[in-house]
Amino acid sequence: MEKTSCYTYFSITSNGIIDIRGLQATDKGIFDPANITKMLGVLPFSSWKKGDKRKTGYPYYGFSAWSGAKSTLDTLVIEEQVLETISLLKEKIEVLLQIKSLYDVSFAIVIVPEIINEETPAIHFNKETIDFCYKTGTEIDIDMYIYQFGDKDE
Q: Which of 12, 22, 39, 96 would staple 66 via disulfide (CB 3.0–4.6 Å)?
C-alpha cells in the first residue's frame, strides 16, 4: 500500500533568462558542477553543466545545476528532512557565499512531497532553517505532487 512520502535537497542553479528554449544561463551563471562538489565536499545526486546533452527533450541544457545534500528520512514532518539537509551545509556558509560571488546562481532548499490519498505532511520551518536561508540567500521551493489513492502508477 502506497503512502505519502517526501524528500528534500539543496539545489544550486544558474540564474538567467527564460526563452522558448527554457532557462538560459547568464555568462557568469555557467559553472562546472565538479567545482561545486570540490568546494562543498558534498557529492551531488544530480548535476549538469550548460551544454551537456539531456537524456530526453531539448538536446542540451541551457544552464548549469547541482543538487545534493538529499534527505529521504521516512517522516511526514518536513522540518526534520530540511534540518538533515542543512546539517550537511551549515558549516559551509562561507563556501556557499564564495560560490555566489564566483557565479550568478540561485540556492534553494527543494521539498518534494508526494501526497497519497490526502495524507499530508507537516510543513514548518524553525529558526535554524530561516537563519540558514537568510545568511545564504536560499529560497524554499515546494514541488508538490498530489495523487488520489492508486493514481501514482497511472
A: 12
